[in-house]
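Residues determine shape. We examine one folded chain.
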Amino acid sequence: MMNTPETIFFLGKGGTGKSTASVLFSLELARKGKKVLLASFDDAHNLSDIFEQSLSHKPRRINAGLEVLQVDRDREIKAYLALTTQKVKQSYAYLTAFNMDNYFEVLKYSPGMEAHALATAFTALKEKHKACDYLVIDMPPTALSMHFFNLPALSLLWVEQLEKLRTEINQRKEIISRIKFAGKEIQRDKVLARIQELKSSHLELKQFFQDKRLARFFAVHNGDRLSLAETQRIITQLTGLNIKLDALIFNHRNANDTDNLENPYPSFPVLNLPYSPDPLIGVETLDRYARSQNICFSPILP
């Protein structure tokens, strides 16, 4: 717990300014002396455009305290399938007689595979960047984001049933495979062990999303009705997962928006990002905009 960076997820409809908001937030934290890793899970590659640099899965230093990377979803899917193939072969040794690679090759097109890949990527980021104070995640469009947050809870439903079924099978057979460890023969069911390993990882991720000391959720919207409606769906779906949205960011993309526009969600703190006539591209432009508009995210952090 002590070495786990706090994670801030930026959600919202495509085109509302999630990437810009996550960049402004990250730059502010870095200016305050925090060590920040900003990662984009969105294939739109907006962070590359904003920073005017080509980004990859390897962190690139932007300035003191801030590194940025772009998660390559195809690469993560391949890595996830390779790891899954390895685990399956370890658990079911007799399957090595078959060519499993062809079966897993088609799985990359399966529904839900992207959410699994992002979950694996996020878990790896948390583990690899424990020295950071903050992980800031620029999330993909809402549908995939919700699949990502729902994945651990959904997976637990069937993993727990698999665990129950496997335990009943073992009780009836009263045996388990035998292996030798440190000169001692012990009993261990590799399949049950793998099921329990999956259960533990999904449970840890589910608890992480629900722990306000570790994970916070900001939704970005503008005056467009569609983005407001999508924000409502985000609030509703997160609530169904026992995850509470922490704050709203009203990005005034239109010069006709006003700071006095009534907040449709008064129970949440709101930060306004005033309209900018100039494209917010490049660190200098973003810093100048933040100073001129007195942008400060502190009020929406506890």
User: Anything to note?
Assistant: The mean pLDDT is 86. Strands lie at 6-12, 36-40, 60-63, 66-70, 134-138, 178-181, 184-187, 215-221, 247-251, 270-273.
